[in-house]
């Protein structure tokens, strides 16, 4: 590739033991003249990933994400066809097709960290957001099933529930489902009907009862605070509770047209405050622990302005790891007034 103005040098240009041109210098006519005088035929140039400043920016410009995005786009289109065919023409879902979509985007070789990062930064048009949410939750469920070491039939049931649980939302106006601001009481009551809608339309087909329950109960909570029936611990299908966790996590960590995604540490801080009351403690603890384990090695920015690397998680305080900074080691379990605000 020919050297062009505006490119940045990826390494110091050395003449003897002296730095003639510093790394990061932007190429211009003067730099080109110097390089010619030094008789340098090739130089290393910064790639897009080198120039990106934050973790998500680096992911966004990576070749691996670009490849994933192409696969994601084509598989999202296939999922849309399946949903629209069901809603509009009552064509039953082909579970082998849904499994093929999940296997293409979430092979066993991809880590949860990489997969979740990819789906978190995808930006969708409003018309595609409900479809993308369903697809993303299904992919999260595929990882969750593996982390929970579910038997194959139960893991498959959880995966399919992830694809179908929110089907009732396609019966409601998109501008209400994805309203940026707070819903008024009438709008919220309308949104809550999607659980009944989904259960009603799926119950006409030969659908696994646990998947039907997930469709109806994914907004129920163990403390009885959920909807539509106000069920409590012992009354909620285990698959529905798993879907509830994946649903909430995806909603908070995925980008929207009106806001950036929350980072995993922020979401874990929120979820762990509710986990003893609203969710199956064994399931959500395993889920959040795996997410945090995959954050080890990441560089982060703390609320006190310090930056460092996550080197260890605290089993007694999920989401508050030990961070190694140049100023010293910060144990967030001990320093409760400090939190992680950004992946870098």
Radius of gyration: 24 Å
What is the number of independent domains? Answer: 3
Tertiary shape: globular
How is the main sheet built?
Answer: 5 strands, antiparallel
CATH superfamily of the largest domain: Hypothetical protein af1432
CATH architecture of the largest domain: Orthogonal Bundle
Termini distance? Answer: 30 Å
Average pLDDT works out at: 91
Give the helix level as a range of percent. 40-55%
Q: In the CATH hierarchy, what is the class of the largest domain?
A: Mainly Alpha
Determine the structural class based on helices, strands and strand pairing.
alpha+beta
Strand content: 5-15%
Order the strands across the largest sheet as they lie in space. Answer: 6-5-4-3-7
What's the oligomerization state? Answer: single chain
Number of strands: 7
Number of helices: 15
CATH overall fold name of the largest domain? Hypothetical protein af1432
Element order: H for helix, E for strand: EEHHHHHHHHHHHHHHHEEEEE
Which residue ranges are poorly predicted, with pLDDT under 50 across at least 5 consecutive positions? none
Describe the structure.
The structure is a single chain. The chain has helices spanning 29-37, 48-51, 55-60, 63-89, 95-105, 112-120, 129-147, 152-164, 174-177, 185-192, 194-202, 209-217, 238-253, 264-278, 281-293; strands spanning 13-15, 18-21, 299-302, 307-312, 322-325, 328-331, 340-343. The mean pLDDT is 91. A hairpin with a 2-residue loop joins strand 5 (322-325) and strand 6 (328-331). The protein folds into three domains: 13-46, no CATH class; 55-261, Hypothetical protein af1432 (Orthogonal Bundle), CATH 1.10.3210; 299-343. Strands 6-5-4-3-7 form a five-stranded antiparallel β-sheet, with no helix packed on it. A two-stranded antiparallel sheet has the order 1-2. The chain is built from 15 helices and seven strands. By secondary structure, it is of the alpha+beta class.
């Amino acid at each position: 590739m020919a050297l062009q103005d505006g490119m940045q040098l990826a390494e110091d240009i050395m003449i003897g033991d002296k730095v003639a041109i510093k790394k990061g210098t932007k190429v211009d006519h003067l730099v080109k003249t110097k390089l010619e005088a030094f008789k340098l035929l090739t130089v290393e140039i910064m790639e897009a990933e080198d120039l990106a400043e934050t973790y998500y920016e680096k992911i966004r410009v990576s070749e691996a994400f670009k490849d994933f995005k192409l696969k994601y786009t084509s598989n999202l289109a296939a999922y849309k066809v399946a949903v629209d065919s069901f809603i509009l023409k009552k064509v039953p879902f082909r579970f082998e097709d849904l499994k093929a979509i999940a296997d293409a985007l979430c092979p066993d070789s991809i880590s949860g960290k990489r997969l979740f990062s990819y789906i978190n930064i995808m930006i969708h048009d409003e018309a595609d957001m409900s479809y993308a949410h369903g697809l993303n939750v299904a992919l999260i469920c595929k990882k969750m099933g593996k982390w929970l070491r579910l038997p194959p039939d139960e893991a498959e049931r959880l995966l399919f529930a992830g694809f179908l649980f929110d089907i009732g939302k396609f019966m409601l106006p998109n501008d209400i489902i994805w309203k940026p601001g707070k819903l008024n009481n009438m709008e919220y009551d309308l949104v809550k009907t999607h659980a009944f809608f989904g259960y009603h339309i799926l119950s006409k087909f030969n659908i696994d009862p646990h998947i039907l329950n997930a469709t109806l109960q994914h907004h129920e909570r163990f403390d009885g605070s959920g909807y539509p029936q106000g069920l409590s611990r012992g009354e909620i299908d285990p698959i529905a509770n798993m879907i509830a966790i994946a649903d909430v996590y995806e909603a908070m960590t995925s980008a929207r047209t009106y806001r950036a995604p929350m980072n995993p540490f922020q979401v874990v801080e929120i979820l762990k405050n509710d986990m003893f009351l609203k969710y199956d403690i064994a399931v959500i603890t395993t889920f959040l622990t795996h997410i945090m384990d995959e954050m080890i090695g990441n560089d982060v920015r703390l609320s006190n302005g310090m930056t460092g690397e996550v080197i260890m998680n605290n089993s007694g305080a999920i989401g508050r790891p030990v961070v190694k900074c140049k100023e010293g080691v910060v144990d967030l379990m001990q320093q409760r007034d400090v939190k992680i605000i950004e992946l870098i």
